[in-house]
Amino acid sequence: MRASIAVFFLLAPVLSGCQPANHTVEPYRSDPQRAAQLEQDAQQLCLQSVTIGAPARPFVTDGCSLWPDGNWAECCVAHDIPYWCGGTARQRRDADRALRACVANRASAWMGALMYAGPRIGGHPLVPFHWRWGFGRDYPAGYRN
What we know:
54% of the residues lie in helices and 0% in strands. It has 145 residues and is mostly helical.
């Protein structure tokens, strides 16, 4: 147990500094027009879902953070939008449930459940990683609406 805690604290500064500056998943990485449309869509969805306005940082996606993108990459991109925006604990839970359903539809129920567990465990707004809830906002963003 102590070894795993030590590894976490050694890796935390490295992982938290890995905030993507650009889209790293296709087609957004190589198609500036589609990337711009995705960023605009993310802004609109965020403004519709929270009263605190859109984040100052531009929306970027790395697909399925720390997980193979597979044929469910679009599910992860759609999941990144509310995670970038932030909001309430309920909105986070709803976003994670939507990810689970999307992946289950494209792959299998067990893969959806496995991918649901990832952000539920590691996506809390107080973890210092780029995949946390509200990652488009300054850390710590916390839950809010």
